[in-house]
Specification:
Blueprint: H1 18-39, H2 44-76, H3 85-91
Helix pairs in contact: 1-2
Length: 92
């Protein structure tokens, strides 16, 4: 199993997850077009093609967004343990 390595690519893992926001917009638009195709007065064929294309873009962005969310979750780690001075005296 080969590891894909791109020496030029750089990913800032602490940035906001714009891919998830973009996926939400694409998938919401696809849902809107799908509903309008079912209930609207325009021909359903072209609207369903548009909804399918928007769904494809939304799913691609969702995949990238979930990958970044998982990376950010693993980078967060566990919280640092903190003890008071009295607890520290009882230990020593």
């Amino acid at each position: 199993m080969a590891i894909d390595y791109d020496p030029i690519a750089y990913e800032m893992p602490w940035r906001r997850n714009y891919e998830l926001m973009s996926a939400g917009v694409w998938l919401t638009g696809a849902t809107g077009y799908g509903i309008y195709a079912a209930l609207g007065s325009f021909p359903a064929g072209p609207l369903l093609w548009i909804a399918g294309g928007m769904s494809a873009f939304g799913l691609l962005k969702l995949r990238k967004g979930l990958r970044l969310m998982r990376l950010q979750h693993h980078l967060a780690g566990t919280p640092l343990p903190v003890c008071t001075f009295d607890e520290l005296q009882s230990i020593c």
